[in-house]
Amino acid sequence: MAKKSFISLVESGGEAASYRTLIERTYGRLREDILNGVLQPGEKLLIEHLKQRYEVGAGTMREALSRLVSEAMVTAAGQRGFTVAPISPDDLIDVTNLRVAVETDALRASIRHGDDFWRHRLRIAYEELSALEQPLKDENVRRWEQANATFHSALLSACGSPWALRVVQQLTQHAERYRRYAIGLHTGRDVHAEHQQIFEAAMARQDARAALALESHIRATPELIVKAIRSGKVVFGNQT
Q1: Which domains does the chain carry?
Q2: Per residue, what are the HEC states of 80-93?
Q3: In whole angstroms, what is the distance from residue 65 CA to residue 68 CA?
Q4: CB 3.0–4.6 Å: which of 53, 104, 158, 184 could bond 118 by disulfide?
Q5: 82-84/44-45 β-pairing
């Protein structure tokens, strides 16, 4: 049986929804493999190989890769196809500096404009996060990651700038690529204390203090990774 065109899929409704779900699932698997280093920085992403690996069609794979291009996790170079975007200490520093600038500004605006609902939402997010990180157990890491994202989202939710929130989301997603390089490094950090300091300053509407605490929190892991790179403890592999 001949494959249906995308137009006929759209017209069929249910099949179109299934196709979108397949793209979303493929995108999620690719993204996880990039974040976890299964697909290495600089690695060529050949459609024919990926089709077999992820058991999807070429169209689905191209759609998923295109989403990752928009998130700067994958690069596309004309006829040369797709490649996992390279990473570097300079890139990490650049992303971190921009994230600090945008996110702290959004936090200060959110504190100024936040109403009772914002405070209630923030308190719930903080309490759920605290319950998972005192202490953080291996079996709760995924739940903690989601709770951490929810807490940071709640902090900025009253900033009044949808564009700022989009930019923060993209920068945070890109910074996740470096997360695995911090695994195994002995940080000596008390992440819960960092979250508590941000939360208490935000609830007290001390926007300058909250912004400083958030900046310190954002910079902690990148600074640790850059230091480890310069000392030779961490090496970015397979860069081209």
Answers
A1: 6-84 (1.10.10.10), 89-230 (1.20.120.530)
A2: HCEEECCCCHHHHH
A3: 5
A4: 158
A5: antiparallel
